[in-house]
Design a protein that fits this description.
Blueprint lengths: L1 E2 L2 E2 L2 H7 L5 E7 L3 E2 L2 H16 L5 H15 L4 E8 L15 E7 L8 E7 L13 H12 L4 E5 L5 E4 L3 E5 L4 E4 L7 H9 L4 E4 L11 E6 L2 E8 L2 E2 L3 H13 L4 E2 L3
Parallel strand pairs: 7-8, 7-14, 11-12
Antiparallel strand pairs: 1-2, 1-6, 3-5, 4-16, 5-6, 8-9, 10-11, 10-13, 13-14, 14-15
Length: 259
């Protein structure tokens, strides 16, 4: 782990563990990232929202590249966490400088199909990828204890929003449907929507409509995987739909990280 380009010490890690901050997770292949600009934009917007300060996107990119160089790898998973050692919960309106923690780990690519259950749950500040992940991990744990692989979130009104750490795309037999509800719009979803050449729409999806859907896949920066079943109802077309999604992502350019 590296904080502001230097090996992270105990003081920096202690500040980063405070439950106030945000992050992005991404895959690196050959020192390049799909949707790098989207990840940096996410970090900049959230830094302004949480700390009132401006994030130097160019510096963050250099720290990411340096972390990979120091780790001696070109392929990896990166988690870039933005926090502030100057943040004081007693004076949360103060504008404070941001600190950046870059963690390097082994690359991953998710693809195995999953069966999920729907639950009524919504994250705090759903539009921000913040570090308050306790609730969503607990929902995933409860879903797995009930015999499912993960949880699909519904709003209090019963609208489909997002998965625990992923976005969902549904197919109604005519077009791809991206549920519209308070949620984190992921980088993978954004790239797929930009490059998907077949009919698609973004609209509110009530949970009662799930029974009529023919296929679904989940996506995040770590991959695309079929949703084999939702609430016990099998979706026979999901694997083929996920394959279409992976084919689309295969054509998305990789943006180089520049030190």
């Amino acid at each position: 782990m590296f904080c502001n380009g230097q090996p992270a010490d105990a003081a920096a890690l202690g500040a980063a563990l405070v439950n106030y901050g945000h992050f992005t997770s991404l895959q690196v292949r050959g020192l390049a990232v799909q949707g790098l600009d989207l990840h940096l934009q996410r970090l900049a917007l959230a830094t302004q929202a949480l700390f009132g300060s401006v994030l130097d996107e160019g510096q963050v990119q250099r720290w990411m590249a340096q972390a990979l160089q120091q780790a001696g790898v070109a392929d990896a998973s990166l988690r870039v966490t933005v926090f502030s050692r100057a943040f004081d919960f007693r004076a949360p309106l103060a504008t404070v400088a941001a600190d950046v923690l870059v963690a390097v780990s082994a690359p991953v690519r998710l693809s195995a199909a999953r069966a999920v259950c729907s639950v009524r749950y919504q994250r705090d500040l759903p539009a921000i990828k913040h570090v308050g992940t306790f609730g969503l991990f607990q929902q995933r744990r409860e879903a797995m204890a009930a015999g499912f692989d993960d949880a699909l979130f519904l709003t209090a009104e019963g609208l489909v929003s997002e998965g625990s750490t992923w976005n969902i795309a549904l197919h109604d037999g005519q077009q791809l449907v991206w549920p519209q509800a308070p949620s984190l719009r992921g980088t993978a979803e954004t790239l797929l929507r930009q490059h998907w050449e077949q009919p698609q729409v973004v609209r509110a999806v009530d949970s009662v409509e799930l029974d009529a859907m023919q296929a679904a896949f989940a996506c995040n920066a770590s991959g695309i995987w079929a949703l084999a079943a939702i609430d016990g109802r099998a979706l026979a077309g999901s694997e083929a739909l996920a394959g279409q999604g992976r084919a689309v992502m295969a054509g998305v350019p990789w943006q180089p990280l520049r030190a």
